[in-house]
Amino acid sequence: MAPNRTVYFLGPLLDMFSSAGATSLRSIATKLVHADEVGKTSSLISISEALVPVIYSPMYSKVYLSTMSTFPGSFYLISAALAVPAIIILLVLHSIRKNDGSADGKSKEREITRF
After folding, report:
1. What is the full per-residue pLDDT of the chain (115 aa) written as tens digits?
2. Is the full-model pTM beyond 0.90?
3. Count of beta carbons in the 10 Å neighbourhood of residue 94
């Protein structure tokens, strides 16, 4: 619940940016793989986006209800803990791609959309 009218009306305006993270993830992930693997990467991301609410919504509800009286913010810690492996995987993929020779100017040749 919004504490006042200003927050109530700012909510939808700020919600416009909620999909920016998913768009950025897709962009970064498709640039980290070779052109022939972009479809596989996009499908893996799409499957993950579809399964995450099915798995995590009940888990967050159970944790929140179990810890509401002692530590209601515990599900935030779970979110942070689940983000750490994803960040590590992204950094590993980035370092592999960087060492693969994409820094020698050939990275533009591998991109699907060249400008």
Report:
1. 778 888 888 888 888 887 777 788 888 888 878 889 899 988 998 898 899 889 888 998 999 999 999 998 888 898 889 888 888 888 887 788 788 765 455 555 555 665 5
2. no
3. 14
DSSP letter string, 4-44:
SHHHHHHHHHHHGGGGHHHHHHHHHHHHHS-GGGHHHHHHH
- Kindly give, in sequence order, each residue whose CB lies less than 8 Å from that of residue 112, ignoring residues fewer than 6 positions away: 30, 35, 38
> Are the CB atoms for 75 and 60 separated by under 8 Å?
yes
Residue ranges of domains in the chain: 22-110
